[in-house]
Design brief:
Pfam families: Cytochrom_B_N_2. InterPro entries: Cyt_b/b6_N, Cytb/b6-like_sf, Di-haem_cyt_TM. This is Cytochrome bc1 complex cytochrome b subunit. The structure is a single chain. This protein has 592 residues and is mainly alpha-helical. The chain contains 18 helices and eleven strands. A three-stranded mixed beta sheet has the order 1-4-11. A two-stranded antiparallel ribbon has the order 2-3. A two-stranded antiparallel ribbon has the order 5-6. A hairpin with a 5-residue loop joins strand 7 and strand 8. 29% of the residues are buried.
Length: 592
């Protein structure tokens, strides 16, 4: 064997393609090749996952349109007399902020389109974030190890809502000025620190000359920077923790089944971005929003009937309108205005705290310390689902309460009757929604159990020899059967003992509380069919499996749904804890 190194003659060498040379140049300087694992990162497919993408793409449109608007907007409260092209407002005193907004609308080419595109993007982004958060709540994706990412996402929702309110207030028109006046009253209602916070935010008695410039800096620098940083961290955690997925054949806590980042997911995401952008542009072009020229400039002594904020602040408006005028005086002459403090400060704080801390409450009640990468179907967790939908119903009651004057005018109803209906509905509607939603979830669990034991309806009618007509049922397909049988059964914590050997239990109260909360969370659910019931059902359907079809714990057998009639392949899927053999794909990189 020769050890002499042989070199190809220089004349025989071929020149590398230009693309390869560019890639080599970039890799030498940036180390891109070391990140090749990201190219094969797998993302599962489900229609509910797209709401987070809608929010992200709307945020990109917001950034692009916001940069454009920044070049033309003048955030000044200096008074001027309008002499622009909008004739009805000519000669009217107004701030430079409102005047520049009119100039963008009527004098800058494409200004109205960009303004409306910016506004519609904000509304769609907040709506998508709300649905995205609700999806995470109902499916339990906030469980370990994603509690921190849940808090980041919830913080993003709060910050984006504040960002929308601040941006909505910048034109200094009569409608947004009224909203700012309400915000000042809410800030003043905070005990002890309310006056200091008002001076810090508004720079003096409202309306002051500092409010619009301060809000402008917050709107274009502070909040966007924080939101952009949190979005980046949020996406990094999604990559790090792997994407959650719904249960199904081949999907375990140790893998992800889906499509790779390159080229499939990137192509789909790119196309979806253009679809979202196009829909936002269509809304901006055909659906008028926030016509500030019809409201006029803000004046503290004026307000228009039917004034409504953007939809995401409607619940706060409704809470303020529903709350009776209630105040009391503390010793020393200090007045506490509960008519503002309770609906506008305490209620939103409690609502946000419950949603933000729910993952930690559920983990404490159940004592579950395991990692969860498979999602719950909402019907499989009736209490959590019922609580989430009841929360949404409370929000909607308050939202419609904020439009009590519009509802009274359009439907010729009494304003006082609508207000009282909202006050009663705040307590009654969430309770009824909780009960109905829980019954629906339990009914769907019973329906799943019936499908497993009796099969699915085929729509075929069969006549028996003695003349009876019956409907023919067929066994569920393998994917559905596996998914229904793999539903986790959560056990209620046992009741604690008061003591042992005459020694009282020092943690009795805490354990009793956990037991009661655990019974509330997991009690009363429909049990899965036992292995014996499944065998009898399959024999009745004529598909009795040779291996028993179900394991002793009621889950699907480890080799899939292998049966004597060849209903399923014999190799099955990876089970939780199994590792692939050498040369196979990594557990978190499985494709279909």
């Amino acid at each position: 064997m020769s050890t002499t190194e042989e070199r190809v003659p220089h004349s025989a060498r071929t020149t590398a393609p230009k693309g390869e040379r560019v890639a080599d140049w970039a890799d030498e300087r940036l180390g891109i090749y070391n990140f090749r694992f990201l190219i094969r990162k797998v993302f599962p497919d489900h229609w509910t996952f797209m709401f987070g993408e809608i929010a992200l793409y709307s945020f990109i449109v917001l950034l692009l349109t916001g940069v454009w608007l920044t070049m033309f907007f003048d955030p000044s409260m200096t008074e001027t007399v309008y002499q622009g092209s909008h004739v009805p407002l000519q000669g009217i005193p107004m701030s430079q902020a409102y005047s520049s907004t009119l100039d963008i609308t009527f004098d800058v080419r494409g200004g109205l389109l960009i303004r409306q595109l910016h506004h519609w993007s904000a509304l769609v982004m907040i709506a998508a974030l709300c649905i995205h958060t609700l999806r995470h709540f109902l499916t339990g994706s906030f469980r370990r190890p994603r509690e921190v990412n849940w808090l980041i996402g919830f913080t993003l929702l709060v910050l984006v809502t504040l960002e929308g309110f601040v941006g909505y207030s910048l034109p200094d028109d009569l409608l947004s000025g009224t909203g700012l006046r309400i915000a000042e009253g809410v800030t003043l209602a905070i005990p002890v620190v309310g006056t200091y916070l008002t001076m810090f935010l508004f720079g003096g008695e409202y309306p002051s000359h500092d409010i619009i410039p301060r809000f402008y800096s917050i709107h274009i620098l502070l909040l966007p920077g924080i939101i952009l940083a949190l979005v980046t961290i949020h996406l990094i955690y999604v990559f790090y923790h792997k994407h959650t997925q719904f249960p199904g054949p081949g999907r375990t806590e140790n893998n992800v089944v889906g499509q790779p980042l390159m080229p499939v997911y990137t192509a789909k995401a790119g196309g979806f971005f253009f679809l979202v952008s196009g829909l936002l542009a269509l809304l901006a072009g055909i659906a008028q929003i926030n016509p500030v020229w019809t409201y006029g400039p803000y004046r503290a002594d004026q307000i228009s009937q039917g004034s409504q904020p953007d939809w995401y602040m409607g619940f706060l408006e409704g809470a303020l309108r529903a709350m009776p005028a209630w105040e009391f005086v503390l010793p020393g002459g200090y007045t506490v205005n509960m008519g503002v403090l309770l609906p506008a400060v305490i209620l939103p704080t409690v609502m946000m705290a419950v949603i933000a801390l729910w993952p930690f409450l559920e983990a404490w009640v159940t004592g579950d310390k395991r990692e969860h990468h498979l999602l719950d179907r909402p019907r499989d967790h009736p209490t959590r689902t019922s609580f989430g939908i009841a929360f949404v119903s409370l929000y909607l009651v308050l939202f419609f309460g904020g439009a009590n004057d519009v509802l009274a005018e359009r439907f010729h109803l009494s304003l006082n009757q609508i207000t009282w209906a909202v006050r009663i509905g705040i307590f009654l509607v969430p309770a009824l929604t909780y009960i109905v939603t829980r019954r629906i979830c339990l009914g769907l669990q019973l329906r799943d159990r019936d499908k497993l034991l009796h099969g699915r309806e085929t729509g075929k009618i069969k006549r028996l020899p003695h003349g009876e007509f019956v409907e023919v049922h067929a066994r569920l397909d393998r994917d559905q059967e596996y998914t229904l049988l793999s539903r986790p059964i959560r056990e209620v914590l046992p009741a604690p003992a008061a003591g042992q050997d005459g020694v009282p239990n020092p943690r009795l109260r805490k354990e009793v509380l956990r037991h009661r909360l655990s019974r509330w969370l997991y009690g009363g659910q429909v049990a899965k069919p036992t292995p014996q019931e499944m065998r009898q059902a399959l024999e009745h359907l004529g598909h009795a499996p040779s291996n028993g079809h179900a394991s002793l714990n009621g889950h699907a057998s480890s080799n899939g749904h292998a049966s004597s009639n060849g209903h399923a392949p014999s190799n099955g899927h990876l089970e939780s804890g199994e590792r692939p053999a050498a040369g196979e794909r990594e557990p978190d990189q499985e494709l279909h």
